[in-house]
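Duplicate of #3305? Posting structure anyway:
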C-alpha cells in the first residue's frame, strides 16, 4: 500500500500544526497550573487553540460553545488557507443570518485537548524542552477535555454558555458539560452520539488504533521527527478507511459507486474499484493534516466515554441536566444509530423526542445536512 496519492509529495511524519506554522484564525489560552486527569496525575503546560466569531456581549450572555468531532478542529467556519488545511466543517452554519448568527451570538470553538491543530497533544513539545510528548502523553477522557474547556471559558470571562453544541465526539463533550457543569450550560444540543460508548463502538475504535500501532513507522509513538514519508501513514490511512466506512451508509455507497471500477483502472490487473479510490482519497487527505498520536489519543478518549461514570449511572447523571435540550440523530447512521439518541433524549429532563435527520449519508449526516441541522440549532438557541 503506497503512502499518499500517486504523483503527490510524501506527507510529513505528522500533519500536526507546529510552532512557526501560520496561525490562521487561531488564538490560544494557556491554562494556569496542571490539569488533573481522571486516570490519575495531572497534565502540565496545557494550551488550547480556539477560534471565535461574532462579538461577546458586555455581560457575556451570548456565548455559544461549538465542539468538533474526531478529526475536526477549531476551524468551524471560513476558507482553507495558511494555517487551515481544510475549509470550515460547518461553514454554512456560522455567520450573519446563519443558524449561528454572528450578529447575535459569540461563537467559540476550541481544538480539543489531545488534538493536533494547536492544542496540547502527543505532537506538542513537553514542558521543559525535553522533546515531544509522543507515547508519554497521558490517556484522556471527555471529562478531562471538558475540564480544560471550562478553564478556557474562565479565561474568556464566560461564566455560563448560552448553549453548548456538539456532534459525535463533540456530542460526548457537550453531554459532559450538561451533566458535570449544568449551571454553566444554558441550553444543549447533542447530535449523533449516545450516553456511553457501546461495545461495538469501542471495537471499531480498537481496530483503528491497532492499525496505527502496527505500522512500522509508528516507532512506539516516537515518530514526530522522522523524515517525510516515514511516519505511520499506512496505519493511519487504514484507520481512516475503516472509520470512513462507519461514517457512511451502505445504500449511499451502493448508489455512488456500486461495483464500478475506477475510471482507467482494471481491478483484475492491479487497479481499483471506484469505492477503493474514494477511501484512498480520504486516507491521503487525513495523513497530511492530522497526527497519528492524536488519532489514537482521541479514539481512546471516545472509547472511555460514559457520562454516568462516578455519577451513579447514566440516568442519574443526565437527571442533573435540566436545561432546555435537544437530541438529534441521522436515520441512516450505523455507527451511532437513532435508538441511542432515543434513549438519550428519554433521560434528559429538558429534551423532547429526538429529531431524526432524513439523510442517506450515515453518521456524517450531522455534518452534511446543514439545512436540517441549522433548523435544529435555531430552535435550541431560541429555547435557551
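Output from current build:
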Amino acid at each position: 500500500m503506497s503512502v499518499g496519492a500517486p504523483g503527490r509529495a510524501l506527507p510529513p511524519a505528522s500533519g500536526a500544526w507546529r510552532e512557526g506554522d501560520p496561525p490562521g484564525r487561531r488564538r490560544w489560552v494557556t491554562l494556569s497550573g496542571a490539569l488533573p486527569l481522571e486516570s490519575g496525575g495531572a497534565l502540565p503546560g496545557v494550551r488550547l487553540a480556539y477560534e471565535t466569531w461574532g462579538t461577546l456581549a458586555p455581560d457575556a450572555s451570548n456565548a455559544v460553545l461549538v465542539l468538533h468531532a474526531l478529526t475536526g478542529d477549531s476551524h468551524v467556519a471560513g476558507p482553507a488557507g495558511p494555517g487551515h488545511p481544510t475549509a470550515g466543517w460547518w461553514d454554512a452554519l456560522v455567520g450573519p443570518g446563519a443558524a449561528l448568527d454572528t450578529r447575535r451570538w459569540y461563537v467559540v470553538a476550541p481544538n480539543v485537548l489531545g488534538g493536533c491543530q494547536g492544542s496540547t497533544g502527543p505532537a506538542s513539545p513537553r514542558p521543559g524542552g525535553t522533546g515531544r510528548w509522543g507515547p508519554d502523553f497521558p490517556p484522556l477522557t471527555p471529562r478531562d477535555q471538558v475540564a480544560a474547556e471550562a478553564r478556557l471559558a474562565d479565561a474568556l470571562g464566560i461564566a455560563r454558555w448560552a448553549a453548548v453544541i456538539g456532534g459525535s465526539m463533540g456530542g460526548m463533550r457537550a453531554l459532559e458539560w450538561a451533566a458535570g457543569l449544568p449551571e454553566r450550560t444554558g441550553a444543549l444540543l447533542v447530535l449523533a452520539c449516545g450516553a456511553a460508548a457501546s461495545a461495538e463502538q469501542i471495537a471499531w475504535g480498537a481496530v483503528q488504533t491497532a492499525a496505527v500501532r502496527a505500522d512500522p513507522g509508528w516507532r512506539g509513538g516516537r515518530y514526530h521527527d522522522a523524515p517525510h514519508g516515514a511516519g505511520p501513514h499506512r496505519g493511519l490511512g487504514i484507520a481512516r478507511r475503516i472509520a470512513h466506512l462507519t461514517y457512511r451508509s451502505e445504500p449511499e455507497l451502493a448508489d455512488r459507486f456500486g461495483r464500478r471500477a475506477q475510471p482507467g483502472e482494471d481491478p483484475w490487473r492491479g487497479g481499483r474499484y471506484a469505492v477503493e479510490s474514494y477511501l484512498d482519497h480520504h486516507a491521503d487527505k487525513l495523513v497530511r493534516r492530522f497526527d497519528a498520536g492524536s488519532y489514537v489519543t482521541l479514539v481512546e478518549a471516545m472509547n472511555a466515554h460514559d457520562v454516568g461514570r462516578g455519577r451513579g449511572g447514566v440516568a442519574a447523571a443526565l437527571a442533573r441536566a435540566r436545561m432546555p435540550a435537544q437530541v438529534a440523530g441521522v436515520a441512516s447512521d450505523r455507527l451511532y444509530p437513532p435508538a441511542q439518541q432515543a434513549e438519550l433524549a428519554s433521560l434528559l429532563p429538558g429534551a423532547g423526542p429526538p429529531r431524526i435527520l432524513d439523510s442517506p449519508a450515515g453518521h456524517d449526516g450531522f455534518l452534511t445536512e446543514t439545512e436540517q441541522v441549522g433548523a435544529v440549532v435555531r430552535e435550541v438557541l431560541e429555547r435557551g
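Confirmed duplicate; merging threads. The radius of gyration is 20 Å. The first strand starts at residue 27 and ends at 30.
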